[in-house]
Amino acid sequence: MTALDPRTRRLLEAPIVPTLLKLAAPNVVVMVAQASVGLIETFFVGKLGTDALAGMALVFPIVMLMQMTSAGAMGGGIASSIARALGARRRDDADALVLHAIAIAVGFGLLFMIAMLLGGRWLFTLMGGTGASLDAALVYSNVAFAGAVLVWIFNSLAAVVRGTGNMAVPANVTAAGVVVLIPLSPLLIFGWGPIPGLGIAGGAVALLVYYLGGSLALWAYLRSERSLLKPSWAQVHFRWPLFRDILRIGLVGAVSTVATNLSIGIATALTGHFGPGAIAGYGTASRLEYLLVPLVFGLGAPLVAMVGTCIGAGQRERALRATWAGAAIAFALSGAIGLAAALFPRPWLLLFGNDPAMLEAGSQYLRAVGPFYGFFGVGLVLYFASQGAGRLLWPVLGNIARLIVAGLGGWLALRWGGDLVHVFAVQGVALVVYGVVIASAIAGGAWFGRVGWPRSTQALLRRIQPS
Question: Are 230 and 99 in contact (CB under 8 A)?
Fold first, then answer.
């Protein structure tokens, strides 16, 4: 039997909370750095005017859909599959999964590119884009999605490395890329000397340069002696069981991701009834929610590896204890950020513009939804833990419940004569539903049998003992 690598042994035997925090610390820093990529773009694009800012607000949910699908949904499937293979000491399968992951990334990257190049105008018009804001959205979208394959490959390779329990390498690559992007983005947007300004398209070009460089760096690491995995194109034989192991988690996770971004896309469309200033305000304010995604992902990525490795090794009780530790940390972290934003919304919004309509709409959103960000953090980190367990039904149902509440509730608010603040209030209720549904199901034993909500902790622990 193959000996356990020290990184794998740490996931199975080391104290849970210190191990999670140690693995999460560099990951959280780097995920925040990666999120700042979008914020950097928004800051500089905001200098081009409200129409450009509204155009980015239209595109941003779709860009984040691709990001969350590639890094969170399919990336979680990749990391989970590799973690479970290593936990079960199937090293050859773990090596082969790397190249299966790249093949999946190329396929989905092409799918996103074709869909957005052909359907972007229709989609952004449906979301409320008109005139100059629609034109700006199309310029940015066409450039960004022309390089969708680069985004997918980068996030898939990062997931491969994280699946081994190594959070430092993706963190270092991402941080180095952000350092390059900070001067590159304004350079391409505004121009300097002989370099012409590309306007809003410059931000998209800078982003693609970032993903290309990061992909090359991650592949170089995987081909080095330092990598635990040893992928080889010369020896690869594509096998459906390995594709299926990634896709059965990744595709179900993608449904959850689509529901999350559709909730925000619908809210953008509902906000569009109040004009471009309202769209810009909502889009700018809701970026704080999107900032929570990589922040919680920083904690969720090591949780995928720990839960997946423990499940692969048959340690069910440890997997569940790690899950609740992660949920508590995520609630405290995201809840604190949400409360701060609700109490002091304008400092965040003023980073990106000072249009009165934008500031008013953004402030209304943060006051209504910010206090409930803790529930969003819990639901999201439990989604990642469920990826590690290979059990995603209830996270998907929780996200669908959020979508129904947010979409139907917002539509009814407008139909019954409600104002913008009522639309936003419904979004806050939807976050509570999202977190409570997923947490209740896992507490009831959904990973290891029928949901029954046992009456005591002892009953729950008996239910999850390996058979």
Answer: no
Cβ atoms of residues 288 and 368 within 8 Å:
no
Confidence tier at 195 by pLDDT (50, 70, 90)? confident
Of all residues in the chain, what percent are helix, strand and coil, respectively (each to 5)? 85, 0, 15
Give the dihedral of Cα atoms 40, 127, 108, 45; nearest 10 deg: -20
Q: 195: helix, coil or strand? A: strand
Do residues 128 and 269 make contact, with C-beta atoms less than 8 angstroms apart? yes
List Cβ neighbours of 43 (8 Å cut-off, separation of 6 or more): 351, 352
CB 387 within 8 A of CB 445: no
Note if the pTM is more than 0.85.
no
Residue 18, class by beta-carbon neighbours within 10 Å (0-12 exposed, 13-18 middle, 19+ buried)?
A: exposed
Q: How far is CA 261 from the centre of its chain?
A: 10
pLDDT, average across residues 136-149: 93
Structure-model confidence comparison of residues 407 and 438, the more confident one? 438
Does the pLDDT of residue 299 top 90, yes or no? no
Contact 151, 157 (CB under 8 A): no
Alpha carbons 415 and 434: distance in angstroms, whole number: 24
Per DSSP, the three-state class of 207 is: helix
Rounded CA separation 187/283 (Å): 24
pLDDT in tens, 67-90: 878 987 898 889 888 988 887 788
For residue 466, the model assigns a pLDDT of 38
CA 439, CA 168: separation in Å to the nearest integer? Answer: 29
